[in-house]
Structures are given as structure tokens and as C-alpha cells.
Design brief:
Layout lengths: L1 E5 L4 H13 L4 E6 L19 E5 L5 H11 L3 E4 L6 H6 L2 H23 L3 H6 L1 E7 L23 H20 L3 E6 L1 E3 L8 H10 L4 E4 L5 E6 H14 L5 E4 L4 E3 H15 L12 E4 L14 H7 L7 H14 L1 H7 L17
Helix pairs in contact: 1-8, 2-4, 4-6, 7-9, 9-11
Length: 355
């Protein structure tokens, strides 16, 4: 299979490319990535010289570039990870989220549609456009219930609103043009190569440097946590076995409060790299003003993908978190390389508009 991966130098995208070359080494992958602050080829340093891998720096907003790539590479599938993805940044500056997540996805769909139209019938039947989205499009849950593929959209942040819009465009291109699309909506990912603005790597690095471990509000907001390796196996199952036009929710079956997540990290660091200055990293925990519009709870019902495609997560929260913390302890050079100085792990998302 020949696959165009957009956003493959980011967190989930780079893990997906690693997964492909581990389990499908004969596949050919072309990675189109803008290389924003959160995308770095250092995450693919073990793959960049693979003859089945190629890289082009550019944006999915560039219609001419995307059309040229599809024409020359002749892919069997497009997998779209390219997105601005940090809720706090979307609060401070939503315009980039609109440009990449909505306009960029539209350009990618339109170029894919025109490319798909000119394929012969056999290749047209086999082609897939897989759009990677988030459970945040569904809004906030109360104490009970789960997001299913039939849950109404109710996004509460500029980020989730932009992803909801892109999901609707993908759906429209299937129903209007017949483009064989697939959409996945996943819960919170964690694991290797995650940029340290997100909760888990931020807490790990701050703890090791003796800095405060900030938790929004009372720390009781709940997320379902999905190990990124499990997510990549689910994406591959959807790409190879999913039914065009369908949506598949992907969850880890690991609901945890933010406070539980931070305390788990502290416990693991106490075990794996104890501090010589304090008795426990938990002493560095502080509570800070909550994020505007902070959704209370997300939880995914992943029965459809289990029932129809035979996928379920392999990692427990305990096993996935231990792998994650150990990876960051083993890869300090990656942490240094990806932080270019524009982000110093400062507080974001205070609603100071920059658009």
C-alpha cells in the first residue's frame, strides 16, 4: 500500500509511521508536514533514511502542493493527522485552528476527490481517505454515559469546533461525491513523542526539573486515556477493514481524573527516578485557575470498532503509563531537540486573544 500521511511529524502521526514500518515494512509512506512547533523530524530520525519513506515540508492548506503530491505519488490512501490540536492554544489564538483544521481539511478533501475521480475502477474502489479526529467534538458528559458514534456534536472550544467542522466536511464528501472516507474519533492519547505542552509530558519534565506541577481547577475533570500504540493499531484496522462512510470511536477504557493522572506520574517517578531533594514528587503539585470552558468528562464507547473490526486496546493505564514515563526518562535528548525556545512550558489558555 502507498499512503500519504499528513502531519506525520507530530505526536500521533509519528507514532503511526513507526507502527507502519514495524508491522507493514513493505508499505510506502509519504509524509507531508508543515513542521510547526509541535512537529519535528527528530521524532522520525530512525526512519528518514528508509527507502520506503519520503518527506515533503508543506501545508495541507496549499492546494497546488497537495494536488501535485497526489498526482506524482499515486497513493492508495490518505491519512489525515494534520491539525492544530492544543485546546489552550485555541483559546488564545483560534485563527490558526480555523485555517489548518477547516480550510486545510477542505483542501485535502477536494484534491483527494479530484485525484480519486481519475483512478481506474479497481483503484477507485480500493482508495481510502481516513480522517483522524477527537472525542472533544461531542462536548462534555455528566457523571454517567458514554460518547457513541451517534452522539450529537456539541463542541465547547475553538479547537473542538474546528475539528467538528472538519468531520462534517469529511462526511459531506462521502454523501455528496461518494469519496470513500473514514473518520475516527479518539480519546486522549499519551505515549512517546508527545510535545510537552500536553498534560503527561509536561508533568514528567516539570517534575524532573523541580518545577511546579500545575493542575487546572480541582483536578477532577475526567478523560479516557488511550495509549498511542493502541491508537495506531486501531487506525490501521480502520484503514484496512473499515467500511467507507463510517465513523469509529476509539477509546482506552481508562477513565481517570487529571489529579489521578498526575499522582500516577509522581508515583512512577518516585519509583523509577526518586528525587534526592523531596520525599515525593507529589509535593510539587499545585492547583491553578481552571481553563475557560473546561469540559468536565469525556468517555468513549468503543464497542463498534471491537464488534465490527475486532480491535480493543492492549495496554492498561498502568502498563501504558509505565512505558511512557520510562520513555521520557530514556530520551532526554528528544525533549531538548523538540523545544525550539518558542515554548517554555508556560501557562496557556487564559483567553488572551491573539487572532
Amino acid at each position: 500500500m502507498k499512503v500519504v500521511v499528513t502531519g506525520g511529524a507530530g505526536f500521533i502521526g509519528s507514532n503511526f509511521i513507526h507502527y507502519i514500518f514495524e508491522y507493514f515494512p513493505d508499505w510506502q509512506v509519504l509524509n507531508l508536514d508543515k513542521l510547526t512547533y509541535a512537529g519535528n523530524l527528530y521524532s522520525l530520525k530512525d526512519i528518514v533514511n528508509n527507502p520506503n519513506f519520503s518527506f515533503i515540508q508543506g501545508s495541507i492548506e496549499n492546494k497546488e502542493l497537495v494536488a501535485n503530491i497526489l498526482s506524482k505519488f499515486q497513493p492508495d490512501a490518505v491519512v489525515n493527522f494534520a491539525a492544530e490540536s492544543h485546546v489552550d492554544r485555541s483559546i488564545d489564538g483560534p485563527s490558526e485552528f480555523i485555517a489548518t483544521n477547516i480550510v486545510g481539511t477542505f483542501n485535502l478533501l477536494e484534491c483527494s476527490r479530484l485525484y480519486w475521480y481519475q483512478l481506474d475502477e479497481q483503484r477507485k474502489e480500493a482508495f481510502r481517505f481516513l480522517h483522524i479526529s477527537t472525542d472533544e467534538v461531542y462536548g462534555s458528559l455528566g457523571a454517567e454515559g458514554y460518547f457513541t458514534e451517534e452522539t450529537s456534536y456539541a463542541p465547547n472550544s475553538p479547537y473542538s469546533a474546528s475539528k467538528a467542522s472538519s468531520d462534517h466536511l469529511v462526511r459531506a464528501y462521502y454523501h455528496t461525491y461518494g469519496l470513500p472516507v473514514l473518520t475516527t474519533n479518539c480519546s486522549n492519547n499519551y505515549g512517546p513523542y508527545q510535545f510537552p505542552e500536553k498534560l503527561i509530558p509536561l508533568i514528567i519534565l516539570n517534575a524532573l526539573e523541580g518545577k511546579n506541577l500545575p493542575i487546572y481547577g480541582d483536578g477532577l475533570n475526567i478523560r479516557d486515556w488511550l495509549y498511542v500504540g493502541d491508537h495506531c493499531s486501531a487506525i490501521t484496522a480502520v484503514l484496512t477493514k473499515g467500511k467507507p462512510g463510517e465513523v469509529y470511536n476509539i477509546g482506552g477504557n481508562n477513565e481517570k481524573t487529571n489529579l489521578e493522572v498526575v499522582e500516577t506520574i509522581c508515583n512512577l517517578l518516585d519509583e523509577l527516578k526518586p528525587s534526592n531533594k523531596i520525599s515525593s514528587y507529589k509535593e510539587q503539585i499545585i492547583f491553578v485557575k481552571d481553563r475557560p470552558g473546561h469540559d468536565k468528562r469525556y468517555a468513549i464507547d468503543a464497542e463498534k470498532i471491537k464488534r465490527e473490526l475486532g480491535w480493543s486496546p492492549r495496554e492498561t493505564f498502568a502498563s501504558g503509563m509505565k512505558k511512557t514515563v520510562q520513555w521520557y526518562l530514556n530520551n532526554p535528548e528528544w525533549c531538548r531537540q523538540v523545544q525550539d525556545g518558542s515554548y517554555r512550558r508556560e501557562r496557556l489558555g487564559l483567553g488572551i486573544a491573539q487572532s
